[in-house]
Backbone:
């Protein structure tokens, strides 16, 4: 597993894509200390204090159809949540038991016809950052565990978990075990109700109604 370590980038997603397009193999990772244009889900920005967290993108080359791509991220999130002993908020936010967010995944896909060519799986994980001005629902591993964290150890745990679980046949069961969302009252866009399950295509069932994309609100 090669990790390209960079001081400052616009986004590790862009660096990893460049490497993937040049033929870098499955499991190649890019890690940066600073991102000037960190990207989050749903068109948001991802902000992180320089040098304190993990800003990581991993190239995945799974031999699967495009329709299965969302399951890779759910699997990676379940694996990383298990490795770090935290929970998953649908679809793939890493949260503590109170729902405070420690990190999130962003997957960007390249396809050839209906097959996945590669996926750039980005993870922003708050490791040692203590203050999150203006983000009351954010937290970090250090805040959760009460002591400074060794980022190299966390990186190793996270990379192993992503590679072991993104395409694992038991990934959705692991997700269900690690879920923070299931059994709770949620709102996703217009849909409101109790999150009753995770369907095999990754949809969240809210009072039995499948929701395929969006974010779980309060
Ligand atoms: C989310 O919105 O929860 C997903 C955030 C993903 C952020 C990570 S940081 C490393 C990688 N590079 C980016 O620009 N985004 C992802």
Residues:
């Amino acid at each position: 597993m090669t990790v390209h370590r960079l001081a400052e980038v616009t986004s590790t997603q862009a660096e990893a894509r460049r490497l993937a397009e040049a033929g870098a193999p499955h499991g190649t990772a890019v890690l940066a200390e600073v991102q000037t244009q960190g990207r989050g889900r749903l068109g948001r920005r991802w902000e992180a204090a320089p040098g304190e967290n993990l800003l990581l993108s991993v190239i995945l080359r799974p031999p699967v159809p495009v329709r299965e791509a969302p399951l890779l991220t759910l699997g990676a999130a379940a694996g990383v949540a298990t490795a770090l002993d935290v929970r998953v908020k649908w679809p793939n936010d890493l949260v503590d038991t109170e729902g405070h967010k420690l990190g999130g995944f962003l997957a960007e896909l390249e396809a050839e016809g209906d097959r996945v060519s590669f996926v750039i799986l980005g993870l922003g994980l708050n490791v040692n950052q203590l203050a999150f001005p203006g983000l009351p629902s954010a937290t970090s591993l250090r805040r959760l565990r009460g002591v400074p964290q060794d980022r190299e150890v966390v990186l190793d745990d996270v990379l192993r978990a992503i590679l072991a679980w993104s395409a694992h046949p038991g990934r959705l069961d692991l997700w269900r075990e690690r879920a923070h969302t299931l059994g709770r009252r949620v709102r996703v866009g217009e849909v409101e109700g109790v999150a009753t399950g995770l369907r095999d295509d990754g949809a969240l069932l809210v009072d039995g109604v499948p929701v395929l994309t969006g974010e779980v609100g309060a």
Observations:
- The chain has a mean pLDDT of 96.
- The pocket of biotin is lined by residues 11-13, 35, 38-41, 44, 46, 55-57, 93, 104-106, 122-124 (CB under 6 Å).
- The chain has two domains: 3-180, 182-218.
